[in-house]
Amino acid sequence: MITSLRGKVLSIGDDSIAVELPAGLGLEVFVTRSLMVHAEVGEELFCYAFMQISDAGLSMFGFSTERERALFMELLQVKTVGGKLAIALLRHLDVEQALSAITAGNTNALTVPGFGAKRAERVCFELKNKIVKKFGESSASGGDGTGKSSSSDAFVMDALMGLGFSQSESLRAISQAKALNDEEKWNEESLLKASLSVLQKR
Predict the structure, then answer these.
(1) Which of 2, 22, 165, 195 would be 169's cystine partner, CB 3.0–4.6 Å?
(2) Do strands 16-20 and 57-63 pair parallel, antiparallel, or not at all (unpaired)?
(3) Residue ranges per domain, the chain?
(4) DSSP code, position 139
(5) What is the pLDDT along the chain (202 residues), one digit of tens a residue?
(6) By the 8 A CB rule, do 31 and 87 touch?
(7) What is the longest distance spanned by two Cα atoms in the chain?
(8) What angle do CA 99, 134, 95 make, to 5 degrees?
(9) Is the fold of 4-63 the same as that of 67-141?
C-alpha cells in the first residue's frame, strides 16, 4: 500500500499536481488545499498519499499531514462520496474547518463547488460521532461553527477566478494573504484585497 510520495513537482493544475518520482515516473496527484499551497514547480515535494483503484481507473491523492489523510479516509466511508469528491472538499476547506463543520452539523460550510447540500447533510449525519471519537473533542470546538471563514474563502475564490486567475493561483494567494497576517479577522472585502495584493507582487 502506498502511504507517501516524494518527488519533483513538474506542473501545477487546478486540482492536481504532476510529480516526477526518483525512478523517473511522472504521476498525477489530486491534492488538498494545504498541499497545493506548498507545491512549487521544480521543487521537491513530500506528501502523504492514498491510491484508489475504481472502475474509472487508478487515482492518487496527496495530503500535507496524516490528519488530512485520516479525514479523507473517513469521508470515503460515506455513501456517494468518492475520492475526487472527498479531495474537492479538502481543496476548499482546511482540515480543521472541515472537522469543525462536520461536528457542528454545519452543512452550509461543507457546501462547496462539487460538494452539494445533500451530500454535506449525509456527511454530517454519518460522521459526526465518528469524528469526535477519532479526532478528539478539540475538533468539535475548533471553530465557532458559523463557517464564516470558509464562506469568505469561497467568495474570494470565485471572485479571483472570475478575474481570470486559476484555482491553484487563487488558493495560494488566499493562503499566503492569511499567512501574512494570521491575527486579521478576515471578511470578504479585506481578504479579496489582500489576495489581489499577493497576486500583483508575483
Answers:
(1) 165
(2) unpaired
(3) 4-63, 67-141, 148-201
(4) G
(5) 789 999 999 999 988 999 999 888 899 999 998 899 889 999 999 999 999 987 778 899 999 999 999 999 999 999 889 999 999 999 888 888 899 889 888 888 888 887 888 999 999 999 988 888 888 654 444 444 444 445 577 778 778 888 888 777 787 788 788 877 765 677 888 888 888 888 887 6
(6) yes
(7) 46
(8) 25
(9) no
- Cell, residue 183: 491575527
Residue at 51: amino acid letter: M
The residues near 113 (Cβ < 8 Å, ≥ 6 apart) are 88, 92, 154
Residue in this structure with the C-alpha cell 456517494, named with its chain if needed: 80
pTM of the model: 0.70
Q: Quick one: cell of 191?
A: 481578504
C-alpha cell at 151: 464562506
The residues, ordered by sequence, that sit 6+ positions from 143 with a Cβ below 8 Å of its Cβ are 96, 97, 100, 101, 104, 149
Q: How many residues in total does the chain contain?
A: 202
Residue 200 identity (one-letter amino acid): Q
d(CA 63, CA 35): 6
